[in-house]
Amino acid sequence: MKKIGTVTVVAPAEPHSGMSHAMTLGEPLRIREYSRNNRFFGHTVSGTPVDCIKVALSHILKAKPDLIVSGINYGSNTAMNALYSGTVAAALEGALQGIPSLAFSLTTYVNADFTYAAKFARTLAREVLKRGLPPDTILSTNIPNVPESEICGVLVTSQGRSRWEESAIERNDMYGNPYYWLSGTLQLHDSDLGSDEFAVRQNYVAVTPLSCDFTAHEFRTRLLDWPINK
User: Which residues pair with 28 in a beta bridge?
Assistant: First the structure.
């Protein structure tokens, strides 16, 4: 992003996968300057991704930014994953604050190569700076972890229906008391390139517009006919 503008980095001090739109309310937030190779790099916040957006806008940035970019995240945030994603939630928080916001995810947790993902992120960021986004709407982009030569193209997709088949692994501590690790496998329930998870599995970049509005508008119209207002 430094190739297209002035960048301020504000990130959680620790990993916060699966935090969704959580905020820290019961304890204070700590902001610290972070250096890399003895040079100032950005700020860390002892909280969630959404905390980072709120703190950045209220205490770190001197002016409202032109763009918020969340990620590039390790692991995909397609289909139902988007509901749990702190990366997506940070972008949604930016949109709620009236700022064009993007979320980027690389579909791997190991041997990550961010070369093409970063290149595409810049391309999309430039377009958003030029064209803008509708109110309360973000673009969530999932990028396959393959060389650029193996990328089949870029698709505008919908949030798919694929979801996690979850399990909890039970173990015992040294006193014999059980404890649990949440685990699971993402089960594919989509079969067309118009769905984000299916698209990335075919080596397409999936760009999905997501809205802060959770209303099921089609069903809301039918709900008006229910005899519940008498």
Answer: none
